[in-house]
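can u pls check wat happens w/ magnesium ion
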Amino acid sequence: MLITDVSVVVTSPGRNFVTLKITTSDGVVGLGDATVNGRELAVASYLTDHVAALLIGREANNIEDTWQYLYRGAYWRRGPITMAAIAAVDMALWDIKAKVAGLPLYQLLGGASRTGALAYGHASGSDIPALFDSIRNHLELGYKAIRIQTGVPGLGQVYGVASDQKPGARYDYEPAKRNVVDGRPLPVEEAWDTRAYLRHVPTVFEAVRNEFGPELPLLHDGHHRMTPIQAAKLGKSLEPYDLFWLEDCTPGEDQDALRLVRQHTTTPIAIGEVFNSVFDYQTLITERLIDYVRSAVTHTGGVTAMKKLLDFAAVYGIKSGMHGPTDISPVGMAAALHIDMAIHNFGIQEYMQHSAETLEVFRTSYTFTGGLLHPGENPGLGVDLDEDAAATFEYTPAYLPVNRLQDGTVHDW
Ligand code: CS2
Ligand code: MG
């Protein structure tokens, strides 16, 4: 079964997505997610200009060989653009293999290890009463684990805090923003103050535990904004509130930073949504400096690479907590869910829920019931792309915000 056609679909149903479509000589179609938020066209070009021609005529069944060919063969290894492109090819080939087998992908990865994947949702509020409303909404939606983020007194808009708190609203509030200045798309700029944030966060967790009790698993995302000693201090001050995890407390490229955090706190640590290779985790895993691997299948080289990364983590007792914001397309989300079902060291799955527009373009078979996600039983990944619907949503440049301190210094993400 040879690869006969490769095409890239860029669409923007509410936000931008890049999807790879591979067709075989048997007429089987596989889909892969190649979305890198704010840098979408770079991956689209990488696939169209440098990968598509290499795939034509290759054996679609040889997934490992194709992965190594694109990774080792390219000379320029790793990086978010290359690894998202490889991920899309890898996902599409697994989709094809599972469709040909007539099985949902998780069956090819070893079958079900659980009835569903525990999901966490994103509650947020500009202040504590608004956060409580948002937590209640999420509990009504069925979530059994919740990430909490709030505004910080003295700061304006804080990333990760939704402005729309209406019950039942989809919390699609971490998109890259469409902001045009003098005809040019530019990132929005937000003010940041880490000391104000560090003073505020423990008071939020205290209020939430008092209101909602000790059992609800609570998570928090620091978006890489603390120094190691600040992160250590936050982890320590949050210990009484028994977090499920503290995510991305320090900048992602500094693995040694987490050694210092680990020395000072027993709050569980998660990191990795900006990583793109197992090598980004080498120190973190072998020295047991983290508790959860946060990578997305889309940004880590696909199902093949993610499965190996999680097997490596399993040796050290480290669990999965795969990235699942709305900039991971439904195709990437489905790939995560099949792995979640099959691996033994599953921890939790992030689930933000895509907008109705997105789900009009991507027809999914995964379900969310009783707090658990399930990929469904359709052969393959279980996602179909409606190309006619996709064509009605034109690509629009959009960027994540840039943070500046009060004196104007650009701050870490
Ligand atoms: C966030 C993401 O889901 C998360 O944990 O950190 O929404 C992240 O901000 C986006 O994926 C950036 O593209
Ligand atoms: Mg995050």
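Residues 80-101 form the longest helix (22 residues).
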